[in-house]
Amino acid sequence: xxxxxxxxxxxxxxxxxxxxxxxxxxxxxxxxxxxxxxxxxxxxxxxxxxxxxxxxxxxxxxxxxxxxxxxxxxxxxxxxxxxxxxxxxxxxxxxxxxxxxxxxxxxxxxxxxxxxxxxxxxxxxxxxxxxxxxxxxxxxxxxxxxxxxxxxxxxxxxxxxxxxxxxxxxxxxxxxxxxxxxxxxxxxxxxxxxxxxxxxxxxxxxxxxxxxxxxxxxxxxxxxxxxxxxxxxxxxxxxxxxxxxxxxxxxxxxxxxxxxxxxxxxxxxxxxxxxxxxxxxxxxxxxxxxxxxxxxxxxxxxxxxxxxxxxxxxxx
Length: 316
Prior knowledge:
The protein is an alpha/beta fold and about 325 residues long. It has one domain (about 10-315): Aldolase class I (TIM Barrel). The protein has helices at about 45-55, 75-85, 105-110, 125-130, 135-150, 170-180, 205-210, 280-290, 310-315; strands spanning about 10-15, 60-65, 90-95, 115-120, 155-160, 180-185, 215-220, 225-230, 235-240, 250-255, 260, 270. Helix 1 (about 45-55) packs parallel to helix 2. The longest helix has 14 residues, at about 135-150. The mean pLDDT is about 90.
């Protein structure tokens, strides 16, 4: 199904929970957030019902997000239900990777096809600082487990933060030189007031090309501009929501853990889906697609997102 601006909407991101085992600086305040009660969250069956209603409208790809999706019990059963929906061609997941190692094989067997894993730094001390609670060793175990069981092509998400990890750009990019992975540098988005980031933190992705000049253009894939090393094993992706707005290529909807469909990440507009079934649910999804804006508002250090929620509640 196409929106009012001719964009084909074929991608649904589902936040299966607002909870997370980390407290990343750009995602949550240090004290965490007020968590949804069990009764306020969509059940896994409700999420699967939304997918069954969305697939006939043209949704072909589903991504499970959070919070941290692996803290949600029963996730493999949800994957199996989504995999059984006619028309769904791809099921992926974005995770911090900390809980992935013991679950990777079961998720693969259930039908999960690939994962994106957050990895903002290669330095263990800096990793603990940016996540507030995390251990880099856990994430590396998750990365190796994902690769071993075929949750590939594996993508590593790096939020680019000036003064924190910009000195590691060559080393992070080099992972794609030596391994068949896609390292994706993502511009820091101004989601949280008082997150402690100054203007120097908001770097354009062009700095990656300045620091790694041997990268050559490859292709465009969704919202990412892809580059490669000559003779490299993988690719480097640049995702630039601030410096190069890509709204004209946006093909996605986002379902929050409490059952609201967001036509745009950076808009406060939401369409409640809980309690809707059959034709009423189908019409609500159609409405969300028709209400996708042409583009979101300005984003910068001084111009915060109008999302109305924190990132852990939306799923990115």
